[in-house]
Every structure is written in C-alpha cells, then in structure tokens.
Design a protein that fits this description.
Its EC number is 4.1.2.13. InterPro entries: Aldolase_TIM, DeoC/FbaB/LacD_aldolase, DeoC/FbaB_aldolase, FbaB-like. This is fructose-bisphosphate aldolase. By secondary structure, the chain is of the alpha/beta class. Helices cover 43% and strands 15% of the residues. The chain contains 16 helices and 12 strands. An 8-stranded parallel beta barrel has the order 1-2-3-6-7-10-11-12, surrounded by 8 helices. Helix 14 (297-311) links the parallel strand 11 (285-289) and strand 12. It is globular, with a radius of gyration of 19 Å. It starts with a helix and ends in a 7-residue tail after the last helix.
Length: 349
C-alpha cells in the first residue's frame, strides 16, 4: 500500500484529523457498497440505469466500495493531441488508453467517441466505457472556448458504453445553450439506460479578480454542481475548490453570508464539503479532477484523493498525471489514488 502520510508531508496532521463542523457528515449520503440500493433506487432512474451504475461501482480495485477511480482521456481534443501525448507517444494509440485503465485497476475509462469506438469490440466487455460527447477544440483561430457536440448518445449506446459524459462551461455566454443540449442528451441517455457524468466547469474571464482566480471558488463551483445535479447528472466531476467568496469578490449573483461564516472555513476539506453539499448532499456523487501533470504528481494526487474522500466525495478522475509518464508509473499513480479510498483509517471528516 502507498505511504499516504509520507506523501502528505507537513499537511498530514491537518488533512487526516480535521473535522467538518459547518456541514456535518451525518447530513450527507456517503459512498458505500449499498449506494445504488440506498440512494438511486428512490429515483426515477430505470432498472437499466441502476444496473449500469452498479457495473461502474463494481469494477476495478475499488469494486463494491462505493468509490470510483476513472481514467479520463479526452485531452487530445481539449488540449491538443501534441500537448497531451507527446510526453508519452504510446497514448496516441487508443489501445494503450484502454490498457492503462485496465492495468491501473480503474472503474471505467472515459474518452472520446473516436477513441472508444476504435476499441469497443475489444474492450467494452472488459472495462466500463464512458463516452464524452461534447468537447472544446483549440485548432480554430482565433481560439474560442465552447463545448460542441462531437457525437450522439445513441452512438455511445451502440458501442456498448455504460455511460456518457459532457461538459458545461457555467458562467460562459454559451452556457445556456450548453445546459439545454446536455439536459436533453442526459434525458436520452437515461432512456437508453446509461449513466450520466457532467464535467461542471466554471468559465468566464470576469471570474478572475485582482489576481485571484475564482474559477476554483467553493461558492461558484458549488452552484455549478447544483445545476449539474438539476439537469440529470448521476455523478458530477468538479475541480477541487481552492478558495471561496467568488460571488462577493466579483459582486454578482446571489449568495448568503452563512456560506462563509458557518458552512465553510478556509480548510480544503470544508471547501470540498460545500461542493459535495451542492450535489444534493452527496446523492449525486462528487468526483474531483486530478489536474495537470507536474513535478509532484504522486503527492498531489494523493492529497486530492484524501481531501475528496474525507469531504464525502465519491472518488477521483485523473488523466494527465497517469498517462504523461511511463506506463508502469501511470499504473502506480492510479493505484496510489485508489489506496486512499481502500484505507479504512482515512475516514469521513
């Protein structure tokens, strides 16, 4: 098992012993081996959706724990293939992507229509597929940021995917159209029995104020999570909150002083606990993203996993940290993340 305390370094005491007091854990629906029976069986989701949710929860090293570890590889579109795969050219090949998810013990692999369609007959029965159907691309000039439909929900169903994913840029001028497109697509996915995951990102240049980037603010990302849950996301993918007070600093929208005075503190677990609360108090699982690759990937990935788990989240979705390194190291990094969720001594704060 991974030496989690060592990787956390000077933060170990704070992250491993903190107790959330603003929103107590007893108020949440927490991940567990009975999550589908305890939470989703009450919803309007069909038996086929419930089966596919259980398939997702039942696969990989975290199988039947209620937690998920997902390998996402859509960066070839979102960030360009060169920027994503030049560090490890084997990942230009969709086969290598699927193999890393399998060898890494992941619950699922999430990628583009092209990647998954190329490998569907070989791998769809071996590891759950989540097809992401919209993307931003940066080959257009001038560069623009918008989520465009690249594939249909029916194409995901036909290839054997158990779920679909999509992104909405909340706060962007295009967000209203994206919300409508994704809401309709998620309804169709549920009709076909598939799981839905929303990448609920905030994006607006106005969210940066006086040198502070409030795209990672707990109050703004929390509202993005709430809208994501509202339009039918079964699981919400969100960047980990790093600050708070976006509404007040930018001076827009509506909020409440209790968000800052009682429900949260500046502790990272409290900030992510607020993100979980906005996912219908954990009824829609919160998975945090692993972020871009850097010098201290193992420590950063484990730190994010500890914060997510202790906040009441459902897992981690980590891509570049895993695939922009030698294959065996990628497997080891994914396993390190999973070890956090398998460690019974790391409890809910």
């Amino acid at each position: 098992m991974t030496d989690i305390t060592a990787l956390l370094g000077d933060e170990a005491q704070s992250l491993l012993t903190h107790t959330c007091r603003g929103i107590a854990k007893e108020r949440l629906e927490l991940p567990g081996d009975d999550f589908v029976d305890r939470v989703f069986v009450q919803t309007d989701r069909s038996p086929t959706v419930l089966r596919n949710l259980q398939t997702l929860f039942g696969h990989g090293r975290l199988g039947n724990t209620g937690y998920v570890s997902i390998l996402p590889v859509d960066q070839g579109i979102e960030h360009s293939a060169a920027a994503s795969f030049a560090p490890n050219p084997d990942f230009f090949d969709p086969k290598t992507i699927c193999e890393l998810a399998l060898e890494g013990g992941c619950n699922a692999v999430a990628s583009t229509y092209g990647v998954l369609a190329m490998m569907s007959r070989r791998y769809a029965h071996k590891i759950p597929f989540i097809m992401k159907f919209n993307h931003n691309e940066i080959l257009s000039l001038p560069v623009q940021y918008d989520q465009t439909l690249f594939a249909s929900v029916d194409q995901a169903f036909d290839m054997g995917a158990i779920g679909v994913g999509a992104t909405v840029y909340f706060g962007a001028p295009e967000s209203r159209r994206q919300i409508q497109e994704v809401s309709e697509a998620f309804a169709r996915a549920h009709e076909l029995g598939m799981v839905t995951i929303l990448w609920a990102y905030t994006r607006n240049n106005a969210f940066k104020k006086e040198g502070v980037d409030y795209h990672l603010s707990a109050d703004l990302t929390g509202q993005a999570n709430h809208i994501a849950s509202t339009i039918g996301a079964d699981i919400v993918k969100q960047k980990m909150a790093e600050n708070n007070g976006g509404y007040k600093a930018i001076n827009f929208g509506k909020t409440h002083e209790k968000v800052y005075s009682e429900l949260t503190t500046d502790h990272p677990i409290d900030l992510v606990r607020y993100q979980v609360a906005n996912c219908y108090m954990g009824r829609c699982g919160l998975i945090n993203s692993g972020g871009e690759s850097g010098a201290n990937d193992f420590a950063q990935a484990v730190r994010t996993a500890v914060i997510n788990k202790r906040a009441g989240g459902m897992g981690l979705i980590s891509g570049r940290k895993a695939f922009q390194r030698p294959f065996a190291e990628g497997v080891k990094l994914l396993n390190a993340i999973q070890d956090v969720y398998l460690d019974s001594s790391i409890t809910i704060a």
